[in-house]
Amino acid sequence: MKQKFNIVTSTCVPLPLENVDTDQIIPARFLKATTREEKFFGDNLFRDWRYRPDGSLNTDFVLNDPTYGGQILVAGKNFGSGSSREHAAWAIAGYGFRVVVSSFFADIHKNNELNNFVLPVVVSEAFLQELFDSIYADPKMEVEVNLPEQTITNKATGKSEHFEINAYKKHCLMNGLDDVDFLVENRGKVEAFEQARKY
Amino acid sequence: MNTLFDKIWDAHVVQQVEDGPVQLYIDRLYCHEVTSPQAFQGLRERGLSCFRPDHIFCMPDHNTPTHDQDKPIEDPVSRAQVDTLEKNAKEFGLTYFGMMNPKNGIIHVVGPERGLTLPGMTIVCGDSHTSTHGAVGAVAFGIGTSEVEMVMASQCILQSRPKTMRITIDGKLGKGVTAKDVALYMMSKMTTSGATGYFVEYAGEAIRSLTMEGRLTLCNLSIEMGARGGMIAPDEVTFAYLKGREYAPKGEAWDQALAYWKTLKSDDDAIFDKEVRFDAADIEPMITYGTNPGMGMGITNSIPTTEGMGEVEKGSFEKSMHYMGFQPGESLLGKPVDYVFLGACTNGRIEDFRAFASVVKGRKKAEHITAWLVPGSWMVDAQIREEGLDKVLAEAGFEIRQPGCSACLAMNDDKIPAGKYAVSTSNRNFEGRQGPGSRTLLASPLTAAAAAVTGVITDPRTLL
């Protein structure tokens, strides 16, 4: 939830697939909850890839492979496409990921991650490919994600990239603040807007 | 030199946050039962009320069964979620259209048909298909639950301004080519992320010639190209559709609104961040073969091969082919189908039922096909009966179910079993979307009807 974000240094979980949609991240049948229990959603992250139809563990899937672990998920381009379900971000956070790295994110999901103090880090295709290579060469290899500096570093190669985030959202993440706090403080401006609008 | 999007967006900016997003005023918040409970809970925890309760409309649609809606929902978890929405609406003083209320239906069908969705508005909902409402000339987009809570708390949302794109489709659509085919065609050309970061305006002769229902279908699918939203400038088609609708302005208020709505179009010298053009003549009835909506092709074409694909792309493509049980390079015509689904916020409107009925009229449902025909709302259901389409469908062996999201996303009883093939008029063919292991082929109501009567994938033009 509102966990202040600064620097995360961790090993990574590689998911070299493109267009990972939010139906895969958390299938619709798990959206019937009326509370925000991150553990429930985390337990069902990538449910139909983690488990076979008979309920047994799919040992071919990376989350079930003890070789890989950590707080950083690294995925192919267009991560989080499809449904707007914020449950996908809750599942990612609930599983224990604090950063998702990809070369491209779907818009709604990206906002949902940010609103749940999970940092989506957009890197170049070349950086992403090299990152996959580094993880497969050495699963214990670490990546540093530095929010204050807005840099991500592949510690195996030493290469760094700058990533974008607006100053407002960065401030929110680093200080554990959310948008509702801001908007409620600004209700006066909303009233003024309503009185002034023509249509 | 403003675009339609600029005009509406700018008229709703409360403030630009320094080095941050825009605080945008929202005219309508639609809430369904799936993505709202945690937002209401958030308000409760903060001790807040809804800031502008009269701007918020609630209705259940995802969990509602498509039969026996007069009885309690059998699945206790679904029932609890629907009951929670009703309780929340009451507690926070919001308008609620419950099951069996004649105003109930899929939120993206009900909004426009009740005149709640109007040109020039900003509209949000915790649902990616909120892009539907852009068809009347509104800025409408899907949001997450935290953002739903923001709107409840302040009637505003914090958003970065998207870039603008205009997609122009010149020329006339061919026989048997519908708005759904146009959308699937665009997605196949642009991929599921081709419009990510953009708000799209659709323009051109082929778009202008679409009915309101067709425009709603097209804008509904904007999100499947990754677009923040899609919109069409309002015109006489829009005004004729909205006039007299329950919540649309009346009398003098209508005249005033109309005068404003007529200004809602991109200026001749408007500059878009990106312009894309397609020719209507290149579009044929479409069908998808893979596990995202961008994996579509003309129904007479063959599935692409992996030639020239990069490593990650090839891996994703092969995973998709394996899931669907298809081979790269093969044609889908003549392949057996198990289920046909007509409905969803994409194709659950009266025009879709007319199209389906036009193909099955005088024919019979193929024996092995299970067909689910689900109106998008009670209003659509009433229209079906008024026009006598129910009789045409019944004679051909089809029954009409009760309104809801139905088999689009497997949150109610309507699920496609593992391994079975469904030709669906819905919006997503993701793995497991219609039930674990289900295999979805997205298509238009005409193509769905053709499959329903022949039992195999069929070019609908051969039956028209």
Automatic annotation (TrEMBL), chain A:
Q: Name one Pfam family in it.
A: Aconitase_C
State the SUPFAM superfamilies in the record.
LeuD/IlvD-like (SSF52016)
Q: Where is the signal peptide?
A: none
Catalysed reactions listed for this entry: (2R,3S)-3-isopropylmalate = (2S)-2-isopropylmalate
Q: In which pathway does it act?
A: Amino-acid biosynthesis; L-leucine biosynthesis; L-leucine from 3-methyl-2-oxobutanoate: step 2/4
Kindly list the GO molecular function terms attached to this UniProt entry.
3-isopropylmalate dehydratase activity
Keywords from the named record: Amino-acid biosynthesis, Branched-chain amino acid biosynthesis, Leucine biosynthesis, Lyase
Q: What is its EC number?
A: 4.2.1.33
Q: What InterPro entries does the record point to? A: 3-IsopropMal_deHydase_ssu, Aconitase/3IPM_dehydase_swvl, AconitaseA/IPMdHydase_ssu_swvl, IPMI_Swivel, LeuD
**Ranges for the Aconitase A/isopropylmalate dehydratase small subunit swivel domain?**
3-125
Keyword Cytoplasm assigned: no
- Among its keywords, does the record have Lyase? yes
The subunit structure is: Heterodimer of LeuC and LeuD.
Q: What does this protein do?
A: Catalyzes the isomerization between 2-isopropylmalate and 3-isopropylmalate, via the formation of 2-isopropylmaleate.
What family does the Swiss-Prot or TrEMBL record give for this protein? Belongs to the LeuD family. LeuD type 1 subfamily.
Q: What protein name does the entry list?
A: 3-isopropylmalate dehydratase
UniProtKB/TrEMBL annotation, chain B:
Query: What residue range is the signal peptide?
Result: none
In alphabetical order, the GO MF annotations are: 3-isopropylmalate dehydratase activity
Please provide an example of a Pfam family that matches this protein in its UniProt record: Aconitase
**Annotated [4Fe-4S] cluster binding sites:** C345, C405, C408
Q: Does the keyword 4Fe-4S apply?
A: yes
Question: Its pathway?
Answer: Amino-acid biosynthesis; L-leucine biosynthesis; L-leucine from 3-methyl-2-oxobutanoate: step 2/4
User: Catalysed reaction(s)?
Assistant: (2R,3S)-3-isopropylmalate = (2S)-2-isopropylmalate
Q: Which InterPro entries match?
A: 3-IsopropMal_deHydase_lsu, Acnase/IPM_dHydase_lsu_aba_1/3, Acoase/IPM_deHydtase_lsu_aba, Aconitase_4Fe-4S_BS, Aconitase_4Fe-4S_dom, IPM_dehydratase_rel_enz, IPMI_cat
Q: What protein family does this chain belong to?
A: Belongs to the aconitase/IPM isomerase family. LeuC type 1 subfamily.
Q: What is this protein called?
A: 3-isopropylmalate dehydratase large subunit
User: What organism, scientifically named, is this protein from?
Assistant: Parabacteroides faecalis
- Taxonomic placement: Bacteria, Pseudomonadati, Bacteroidota, Bacteroidia, Bacteroidales
Its gene name is leuC
